[in-house]
Write a structure and sequence with these properties.
eight-stranded parallel beta sheet; 20% strand; Rossmann fold
Length: 342
């Protein structure tokens, strides 16, 4: 276990975690506590934050520690952990990594004004000076993945499995559809929202239905995508992902992945807190600030010529989005305004 990483012992039955209790707080150590709705290896939303904190742990060494409570989908359970961390006085930053935690953050931040809180994905700081919010322009990578999907599809039939039509999930799906339409207006994109972030069997069923209807490319977002990825592998379809890299699981079916780099936001937050600013800002990850990375799978089954075309297309579309020549979504549908992370 890395020196800076400490899991909170919350009970095997409830969350599947066994961990270490925090050591006494040290003045020269920046200490973070974070709660997330799913597992740290979910290949999606929770893993993206865990990976970011792990990266900072490796970069900052003894000057950084973090506690991470995974698998806390029930808001009341998350509220217990968040309150304990806030009242302990041991943490410089408390993170509620899930849009379902907003009301809890609003309540606790008012009760503990000397504690810095961050939450997302959202841009609402509740007008509280100790709350930071963060989100991601997921439509940007969605657009790129959609354009590539249209380019690789032979049938012109593409399926997308979404969780619930909110937040970065909706932005990704809408951006993906926009990218497909801009690249091949004759292609058909069918979208199914299964109304769950974690229902793998239902997501698998949706993906199977797309295959039965002639789809040859699939995409999706949230932790339930492990099911659709399995369908893509079994039926020889291309897969495009978001939030975290799913390259190893997708194997030869994987093409490209939009990877969230929350460390870009966290560096800004840490710097602000160390200078005495506890919150009051919202931040957004973008292609321009490096908070969004487009990863091409090292395991992809694409031939060398097609792979080169994919890489060139990603570079070209990224440049177009950053310059403003390509607008993935109309402004009314795009990511809400927030302070770009530096």
């Amino acid at each position: 276990m890395r020196k800076g990483l400490r899991f909170l012992a919350v009970g095997v039955a409830a969350f599947g975690l066994v961990g270490l209790f925090p050591a006494a707080a040290q003045d020269d150590v920046f200490r973070v506590a974070a709660v997330s709705p799913s597992a740290t290896n979910d290949l999606a939303f929770s893993q993206s934050m865990f990976d970011a904190l792990t990266m900072l742990d490796e970069e900052m060494g003894d000057a950084f520690e973090f506690t991470f409570q995974e698998g806390t989908f029930v808001v009341d359970d998350a509220a217990v952990a968040l309150r304990d961390w806030a009242s302990s006085g041991e943490y410089d930053l408390v993170i509620a990594h899930g849009s379902q935690y907003g009301s809890v953050v609003e309540e606790l931040a008012a009760e503990f004004p000397e504690v810095a809180f961050a939450w997302g994905t959202d841009v609402n700081t509740f007008d509280l000076p100790n709350v930071s919010a963060y989100t991601v322009a997921a439509e940007q990578g969605g657009y790129i993945n959609g354009a590539l999907a249209a380019m690789l599809s032979e049938s012109g039939n593409i399926g997308v499995i979404g969780p619930i039509e909110v937040g970065d999930a909706k932005l990704y799906v809408d951006g993906f559809v926009s990218g497909v339409n801009a690249t091949d207006p004759d292609a058909t994109v069918n979208v199914t929202y299964i109304q769950s972030f974690g229902d793998v069997p239902l997501a698998t069923e949706a993906a199977t239905a797309f295959v039965s209807n002639g789809a040859d490319v699939l995409s999706g977002t949230a932790q339930m995508v492990v099911g659709p990825i399995g369908v893509a592998l079994e039926d020889g379809l291309w897969w495009f992902g978001t939030q975290s890299s799913q390259a190893e699981l997708a194997a030869e079916s994987g093409v490209s992945f939009q990877v969230y780099r929350w460390d870009v936001v966290l560096r800004d937050l840490i710097a602000d807190i160390q200078e005495g600013t506890l919150g009051g800002e919202s931040y957004v990850l973008t292609l321009e600030n490096g908070g969004i990375e487009m990863e091409v799978s090292e395991f992809t089954g694409l031939d060398e010529e097609t792979l080169a075309t994919v890489e060139d297309t990603i570079a070209s579309l990224t440049e177009g989005i950053i310059s403003g020549d390509i607008v993935p979504l109309p402004s009314a549908e795009a990511t809400p305004e927030a302070t770009p992370a530096s």
